[in-house]
Amino acid sequence: MTISSLHSSLWIEPWRDLITEANGHDPRSRYFEQFWLGVLGPTAAWLMRYVAHEFDGSPDGFELPITDVALQLGISPKAGPSGGLQRTLHRLVMFRIASESHAGYAIRRRLPPLNNAQLRRLPQRLQRSHTSYCSLAEPAA
Were 98 and a residue from 46, 73, 81, 92 both cysteine, which residue would form a disulfide, CB within 3.0 to 4.6 Å? Predict the structure, then answer.
């Protein structure tokens, strides 16, 4: 889906995934900031935080004002495939955090833990920190 210059907003709805919603990480959490940021990049991370706040007030979905949000994120408000918001949404799709829906995009409310390939892209210090974080988060047997 390409953002058209004819549209001033884009429909965003939640990506329904009961397992990730129950066990995943909020985009405003320490886990997200510490581990997902290096994978998604700062603009996509800030967009995820924006979307999370919007879902708080509109849990079934909302209209995302394209130009306003692009300018708020400090990216080009230009429409089309080279526009900043379009590239950011494409990045979320690439990492399976968003998917194109019939009316716009479905975006996860919560993110799964990093997979092994994503984890290997992080600096060694963060990889070790992730291992420690996950061992503390596991319930005792």
Answer: 92
